[in-house]
Write a structure and sequence with these properties.
The chain is mostly helical. Helix content is 76%, strand content 0%.
């Protein structure tokens, strides 16, 4: 198993563990709130972490069939994983601050250029991983 696959599997485990811990925070918020609702962004962070853990597993499995060099594999898996982690951290930060307002209401680097970088990294990286699988399994 190469380093890119190991990194992606480790990220899957870390995201899953983070999701479980965020579930505890979510439960705590539900129990403390008069409305029995967790802070909006804790709820989002919890679901995102769980979703990204499974996305990382899919990426790791697809990488097993990659035609790319290990360094390219590290780039195309590392970019989405980095932005998955940033998203979870940002949602958690907003949740701990109990900000329930839409984070996109105020325009700044994160909500403009940051999102464009996220799109390029996530769609580009995962697209390259999927294409690598398709090219070796169906077009070779």
């Amino acid at each position: 198993m190469n380093l890119a696959i190991k990194l992606t599997l480790a990220a899957a485990g870390i995201f899953l563990f983070a999701g479980l811990l965020l579930g505890v925070l979510k439960y705590r918020g539900i129990m403390r709130s008069p409305e029995h609702c967790a802070p909006v962004y804790i709820d989002i962070a919890h679901r995102a972490a769980l979703m990204y853990s499974f996305a990382a597993l899919v990426m790791a499995e697809l990488l097993k069939f990659s035609p790319y060099s290990e360094s390219v594999q590290l780039l195309i898996t590392g970019a989405p994983l980095l932005f998955f982690a940033i998203a979870i951290a940002q949602y958690t930060k907003l949740g701990l601050e109990n900000k329930t307002d839409n984070q996109f209401r105020q325009r700044n680097f994160n909500t403009t250029w940051g999102i464009w970088l996220l799109i390029v990294a996530e769609v580009g990286g995962v697209g390259a991983i999927v294409w690598g699988f398709i090219s070796t399994q169906f077009l070779a």
